[in-house]
Amino acid sequence: MIGAMIRLFKVKEKQRELAENANGGVPIKKQSAGELRLHKDISELNLPKSCTMTFPNGKDDLMSFEVSIRPDEGYYLGGTFLFSFQVSPIYPHEAPKVKCKTKVYHPNIDLEGNVCLNILREDWKPVLNINTIIYGLYHLFTEPNYEDPLNHDAAAVLRDNPKMFESNVRRAMTGGYVGQSFFPRCI
To answer: What positions constitute the catalytic site (predicted)?
Structure first.
């Protein structure tokens, strides 16, 4: 039994060597299950026309990418919001880490870019995918939720005075102060 296992190991080692030689001596990187699933998710994406995906580290690094969202309705109409995605090798058993790189006045996104979206936390399930997350982020801009806030001040203004909230969003998106926080232009 042990002899058969050793022969099998040597055959596998020989196959790997042959593959590396055929690849110009470059070791072949084995894809993790997370990379394989992410590749499938990306190939099946059906993004809204107002969303784009880019790979700042090149297409060889699928586990790190950015998504730009340009809402076509609601308070955030005309703004462009950039999100970074970091995907774990154990994806889809762990939700991707998503951060908003654009400083935004929003009840569900804090000033450090942390995002409050239930499917990125307690409601994450392996059957969900990148497309679901992007649609969830897009939905945050068309229907901000003051009931589950990260930015409590923005949530209170949205709840108590929607016209003031709209004015604050416009001021923030055109580059200006809301309260003590400065927001760079995102329109």
So the answer is: 116 (glycyl thioester intermediate)
* 116 is known as an active-site residue: yes
Q: Which of 51, 100, 116, 186 is catalytic?
A: 116
* pLDDT tens-digit readout, 66-109: 999 999 999 999 999 999 999 999 999 999 999 999 999 999 99
pLDDT tens, position by position, 107-145? 999 999 999 999 999 999 999 999 999 999 999 999 999
Burial 57-95 (b: 16+ CB within 10 A, else e): eeeeebbebbbebbbeeebbeebebbbbbebeeebbeeb
The CA distance from 177 to 113, in Å, is 17
Coil, strand or helix: which one is 160? helix
Task: Estimate to the nearest angstrom the gap between the alpha carbon of 99 and the chain centroid.
Answer: 7
Rounded to a whole number of angstroms, the distance between the first and last alpha carbons of the chain is 68
The answer to whether 96 touches 87, Cβ cutoff 8 Å, is yes
Q: Describe the strand order of the beta sheet including 51-54 as a list of residue ranges.
A: 51-54, 64-69, 81-86, 97-100
Domains and CATH numbers, the chain: 33-182 (3.10.110.10)
